[in-house]
Amino acid sequence: MPKAVKPWKPESRTALVRRARKINRELAEVYPYAHPELDFENPFQLLVATVLSAQTTDLRVNQTTPALFARFPVPEDLAAANPEEVEEILRPCGFFRAKTRSVIGLSKALVEDFRGEVPGKLEELVKLPGVGRKTAFVVLGNAFGRPGITVDTHFQRLVRRWKWTEETEPDKIEAAVGSLFPKSAWTDLSHHVIWHGRRICHARRPACGACPIAPLCPAYGEGETDPEKAKKLLKYEKGGFPGQRLKPPQAYLDAGGRPAPPLGVA
Ligand code: SF4
User: Fold this and answer.
1) Each residue of 125-181: pLDDT tens digit?
2) Which one of 9, 35, 136, 180 is most buried, by most CB atoms within 10 A?
3) Is 93 annotated as a binding residue?
4) Which residues are catalytic?
5) Cα(220) to centroid of ligand 1, in Å?
């Protein structure tokens, strides 16, 4: 059983910063190949894929977007698309009518306001219909190399478990966590936290007994502490299954990761 810090005692700001950075360093060792789990080849594809990822898995989006981008490769194509055709393609993603409206509306705005280019600034990205700060930071961090913190559901859950912040609103969480790290670390930090949330520190049954950062975690024991039972809860490549991308980065493949299967293949 991992040696955990328990019971948790209040800590100074300095101790919190040290512990937060240590968690990030340890997660970097566990997930040296952490990357955005949406397949994309350019900012437009990442923007659309991020919008499609609401209420579904990145895997399902990755299995759906190849057909979408083969048929509508640039914003001009999607802006002028027949909605029924797009709906058919997006059906596997769920909420396909609303998502069709979103991606067509988004493409129209790109064409009309940004000459068909995805803008590389936060204040411009959030002006696009259906694009909030979370989506904007995903695009900025991963398609433009600008540091950003992605406060998704995993991020929110984990940073609260780790007592990095007690804030509950995404914007405030982003500011509070951002203040613990240098800006240059933000994008990788987001990947590490989200990867840990997907693979080990799950919402319902976190695999505490198989968790490499248990000694640094105030919430150790919230989930399964028996190492053998905890191991069975691990997901994706930690649990012996492929990751979510059909076309993962080379570093992931070099580390033994496997590409996810296309739609309809088990
Ligand atoms: S799995 Fe358990 S020990 Fe690990 S980070 Fe999550 S709550 Fe903490």
Assistant:
1) 999 998 999 999 999 999 999 999 999 999 999 999 999 999 999 999 999 999 999
2) 136
3) no
4) 134, 152
5) 5
